[in-house]
Design a protein that fits this description.
Blueprint (H helix, E strand, L loop, with lengths): L1 H17 L6 H26 L18 H25 L9 H22 L3 H11 L5 H24 L1 H8 L5 H10 L6 H34 L12 H27 L6 H31 L3 H12 L3 H24 L4 H23 L1 H4 L15 H24 L19 H25 L15 H21 L13
Length: 513
């Protein structure tokens, strides 16, 4: 009797560890997030009614910059999402057990940050509805924006969503039984028949490995396209550089890991999560390595532009380092240096300090936002090749309010999710090596989905490249970019098809496998 009571106590304690009650401060932070989101919506409605004139953006060459705070945070939010799914994929591919407690937080952060980045693009468009309708019809793959909207939003976002969904089925199945009402339907729908059988564990083990393996190159390619948006513009000094794409990827890792550290430590306290210090220490070590690489990129970039670059490149480099933008540049450089130096000192001295690691994560994001401002703005206001009027750019309260609203959306979504679903995954048990039943029909159907997806990718991409248009500017097939994006999404969906299809013969859960 005593042993039974102890077993029940252990089970209850284990469940509580995965899904603990949050602190009272949860209500305060949720209220602040709601207020920030409401303020952001009000600011955007004001901009939508009066036009983009209420922002600080103006025409380059006529005293202003057409890209400002919105584009800065498009890159920032997508960078944050980059690190989130990277950590989750690395933990799966390389069996880094110390990262397992933060994989779900990382995946969730990826999804909400990508949505916030997409919302920044909508806010930046002068006529968002017109742009959103024409882009799927006329997008040109010779432009990096094609990759941004297809690979990032269709491939990157959808693959992250599929990975997040499949990884959470185990916990959803555990929560479905005791739940009642709408939550029970939510959990059962998410579990989608998962019963934690050895066969299902083995199947998920295989699917998650290949999906993680496919996500890593996809997200590197997708985020590199953001760098190409700037890096291939030869007529814009300060942007044209072969380092833009790799530098965007590395800085995304720095800021994303820094944000993940802050969110992990904050949610560990707020939700009483069982996340060990070793996990945060690992993230800090990863961050200082990436920050060191990015500092090297910055030094190379400045030396090249200052030493032997054309006059226009030297002019804008001097303006950034010692002119109008010097305070922002040295603040940025200092923040990124400390993001490297603080965790590096903790690493070499073999010390652990969550406060210092959190400070380094905060400084990494301050430096990342500053660097993105230095990338976006100076080349528009001071980087013209022609002797035209230099400009200025100062964000208005409207732009700041919209960005704060997007931060409110991110944290509101994560705070509410933490109340209905465990932020620390319970894992899928030990299914590796379990022999699977005959899966010919499952593999055949999955292969058909893959072939159909590849067909859509080839057709959509070929016509988007004007292969069938015989020199005409517009594609012959309407919505060719949508066909390509649908093919990418269907290709990712093949992982869910393989895992979610029911077995041909019902498996007895009591029968050993």
């Amino acid at each position: 009797m005593q042993s039974t009571t102890e077993a029940v106590h252990v089970e209850v304690s284990t469940q509580a560890a995965h899904f603990p009650r949050p602190r009272i401060a949860w209500f305060l932070f949720t209220a602040l997030a709601v207020l920030a989101l409401a303020a952001g919506i009000a600011c955007y409605l004001h901009e939508h009614h009066h036009g983009a004139i209420v922002t600080g953006m103006r025409t380059p060459g006529y005293g202003g910059a057409s890209w400002g705070l919105y584009i800065v945070f498009v890159v920032f939010f997508i960078g944050v999402s980059f690190a989130g799914i990277t950590v989750a994929a690395m933990a799966r591919l390389f069996s880094i057990e110390v990262l397992a407690p933060v994989t779900r937080i990382a995946e969730l952060m990826t999804l909400v940050a990508l949505l916030a980045g997409a919302a920044c693009v909508v806010a930046d468009l002068g006529r968002p509805l017109d742009g959103l309708l024409k882009l799927p019809r006329y997008a040109n793959p010779s432009s990096p924006f094609f990759g941004t909207f297809t690979l990032v939003m269709a491939g990157y976002l959808f693959s992250s969503l599929v990975y997040f969904f499949l990884a959470g089925r185990n916990d959803a199945a555990r929560l479905a039984e005791p739940a009642r009402g709408p939550l029970r339907l939510f959990y059962k729908g998410w579990a989608s028949g998962y019963r934690d059988l050895p066969v299902q564990r083995e199947r998920h083990h295989r699917v998650s490995f290949w999906l993680a393996l496919g996500i890593l190159p996809l997200l590197i390619t997708a985020h590199s396209t953001l760098g190409f948006v700037f890096g291939i513009q030869s007529g814009r000094p300060g942007w044209f550089s072969a380092l833009q794409a790799p530098a965007f990827v590395v800085l995304a890792g720095v800021s994303g890991i820094g944000m993940l550290i802050l969110v992990t430590l904050g949610f560990r306290w707020l939700f009483r999560l069982q996340v060990p210090d070793a996990t945060v220490r690992w993230l800090g070590n990863f961050m200082w390595i990436l920050a060191f690489v990015y500092l090297y990129f910055m030094i190379v970039e400045e030396l090249t532009a200052t030493y032997a670059a054309p006059a226009a490149e030297r002019r804008i480099a001097h303006e950034i380092v010692g002119g109008t933008f010097a305070p922002l540049f040295w603040t940025t450089a200092g923040g990124l240096f400390l993001a490297f130096f603080i965790p590096f000192v903790l690493f070499v001295t073999k010390r652990t300090s969550m406060g210092w690691v959190a400070l380094a994560g905060l400084l990494a994001n301050v430096g990342a936002v500053g660097k993105r401002l230095l990338i976006v703005v100076p080349s528009q206001t001071h980087g013209a090749l022609m002797p035209i009027e230099t400009g200025t750019y100062t964000p208005t309260w409207v732009e700041i309010g919209v960005v704060l609203g997007l931060f409110g959306f991110i944290f509101l979504a994560m705070l509410v999710f933490g109340r209905v679903f465990p932020l620390v995954p319970s894992g899928h048990g030990h299914g590796h090596g379990t022999p699977l039943p005959d899966e010919f029909w499952r593999r055949a159907l999955t292969a058909l989905v893959v072939l159909a997806a590849l067909g859509l990718v080839v057709i959509g991409l070929s016509d988007a490249f004007r292969v069938f248009s015989h020199g005409e500017y517009d594609p012959r097939i309407p919505f060719a970019p949508v066909i390509f994006a649908s093919g990418v999404m269907l290709l990712v969906s093949s992982a869910a098809v393989y895992e979610l299809l029911p077995d041909k013969h019902r498996i007895d859960p009591n029968q050993p496998h």
